[in-house]
Amino acid sequence: MPPVFPMLTVLSMFYYMCLRRRARTATRGEMNSRRAIESNTRALPINVEIVQYAKEVLDFSSHYGSENSMSYTMWNLAGIPNVYPSSGDFTQTAVFRTYGTWWDHCPSARLPFKRTPTTFCSQDYVELAFEEPVYPTAVHVLETYHPGAVVRILACSANPYSQNPPAEVRWEVLWSEAPTKVNGPQARQFTPSIKQINFPTNLIRLEVNSSLLDYYTELDAVVLHGVKERPVLSLKASMIDMNDIDEDEDEEKYGCGMDALNKQFSIVSFREWPSNGYFDKLPYELIQLILSHLTVPDLCRLAQTCKLLYQHCCDPLQYIHLSLQPYWARINDTSLEHLQSRCTLIQWLNLSWTGNRGAISVSGFSRFLKVCGSELVRLELSCGHFLNETCLEVITEMCPNLQELNLSSCDKIPPQAFNHIAKVGNLKRLILYRTKVEQTALLSILNFCSELQHLSLGSCVMIEDYDLIASMMGAKCKKLRSLDLWRCKNITENGIAELASGCQLLEELDLGWCPTLQSSTGCFTNLARKLPNLQKLFLTANRSVCDTDIEELAANCTHLRQLDILGTRMVSPASLRKLLESCKDLSLLDVSFCSQIDNRVVLELNANFPNVFIKKSFTQ
């Protein structure tokens, strides 16, 4: 019989190494060597658990509601539950702007960035502050309608209420998972198993992906459980997950804070090999093609292997399209500085969600664009709260070829700064959702940017006269294909008439929650007759939409794919049948809260038109 002791020794050593790695992960090197691992026979110290609801909503990427009310806004996540455990569509909950894949199948849809890691699927986020910093033991998300959107929960080392901001802000992922389809829209308390971290936190971030949902997800409250003293790691509690080992090794090698990518970006040493193997025999272009499938961190790691691959991995042709959004928590001025030499030919750049809490400075952003902005065609800066007037001035000066600019939810940019955008005469896409753009600046932009094809002005509350804006669009923006006027408070039938007469190429128009539009003025009939190319029309929450409007759409807009008439009381089943029979490409029809369209009618329409998703929301 062969001896078993060597095998036992190997297994013991492996188990000991796993425990050491787990202990190191839990404490991040802060444990004293005498306290590295506690025995499971030793009693853990008593630590009273603190349970707290969010005190404040600090930041978010989008919401369904208005900037001037509480209905369907992210601010409803602060405090105790308003709705839970009830299920249904309630205005007192937090709702993001989009759901499903409908927004990916409309004229305004943007092409995705290549090299996005498969593990990053977040579409929206919300950040919540709590009163007391704690070591998290549990996070409860109270979902009251169409649950299943939360894909990632993170904790931050920075205390938003501290008078002394830390030198380094660190984010740790407590839990993450790919989007999953939840059966049924009923309310639930979502309590994922979270990772133990080595710092106290009172700043929690939820990231969501609503692509698998049949309707808007609604969140009511978030509960943070935690203790004031760091829990001692117990052997009994240390369940080894084999999938964690590689991640732990990466964290040990590259760090877990802001320096994680910076160490990879800046590495210039590589192993010395006598040759580059079979790669020497491959054409340069073929190697470039192979490497184009790697993510940015993988490129940086591969660059350390040999001189040949180092040259390929640092070739600016590998960085023509670059999205740093998946790494938002680890990007700072140093990251941009290391990337400068590789991004001299960059055309698409995504810095959305990056740079907040001082990670990227105005000077660091400006230095990067001065070196790398000359070829930029597309620039994504959504939720970039470091942006100010100087940044917009640098963009307009350093990016002469810019065609697409996304400033969605950049609500810290002062109103006067938007005047600089008028200098970018080649703009084809401009997203100003939830910004403080004012009327004078917007008129200047429309006057000088006549090439605009896609324009988003959703929730821009500082514009005083949308009729004047619509008139300028009709006169100057003849190539406009999509226009978002979501929650525009003062546009009337006069502005709609100017818009429809001048922008007859429009394929997408969002007039959701525009209360000053009334069907009795003929504005919707006018739209249907003047805009035959319409594929998407949102008339959300306009109670005046009637059968005449639907019949005009059926007669004139036969290419219609998406129609939202949520909340109307004047549309009958007969007019909807005419629409469905005429518009063969229709795929989305939202008739939620339409008083004449009951569940029986929806079932009948679904049976006769199975290719159309007909949505009927409810409240219990």
UniProtKB/TrEMBL annotation:
Q: Where is the F-box domain?
A: 276-331
Sorted UniProt keywords = Leucine-rich repeat, Ubl conjugation pathway
CDD domains from the UniProt entry? F-box_FBXL4 (cd22117)
**Entries under Gene3D superfamilies matching the protein:** 1.20.1280.50, Ribonuclease Inhibitor
Q: Name one GO biological process term.
A: SCF-dependent proteasomal ubiquitin-dependent protein catabolic process
The record ties this protein, via InterPro entries, to: F-box-like_dom_sf, F-box_dom, FBXL15_LRR, Leu-rich_rpt_Cys-con_subtyp, LRR_dom_sf
Any one Pfam family match given in the protein's UniProt record, by short name: F-box-like
Query: Per its UniProt entry, which superkingdom is the organism in?
Result: Eukaryota
A Gene Ontology cellular component where this protein is annotated is: SCF ubiquitin ligase complex
What's the name of the protein? FBXL4 protein
